[in-house]
Amino acid sequence: GLAIECYEKALRVEFNLKDIPLLESQNFSIVYKEVTVGEFTVKLIAYETIIVLPIVAETINDGDIAKMINQLKVAHYQAGLIFNFKYPKLQWQRVIL
After folding, report:
1. Residue 31 and residue 70: Cα distance in Å, rounded?
2. pLDDT for 50-75, tens place per residue?
3. pTM score, two decimals?
4. Of 13, 37, 80, 84, whose CB has the highest number of CB atoms within 10 Å?
């Protein structure tokens, strides 16, 4: 039940301890009909190909999965992991395009 930033930092530490390559704060342009209409930042990318989305919520819901799918499509990645840190036992969901 801590702030999401604490879990993001903890993931960074854990990935470093496990020698998991990690990209941080990568920006991606949102393009619609060849026109850039916005931008978003992915805070954590493991192995240069897997978007990692930490959340603190009652459960991983359809909105979280939709957010991951949108990020994967815009970033042109195929795999993502959603980690929910709300409870003592980690809840997680793998999303594959």
Report:
1. 12
2. 999 999 999 999 999 999 999 999 99
3. 0.89
4. 80
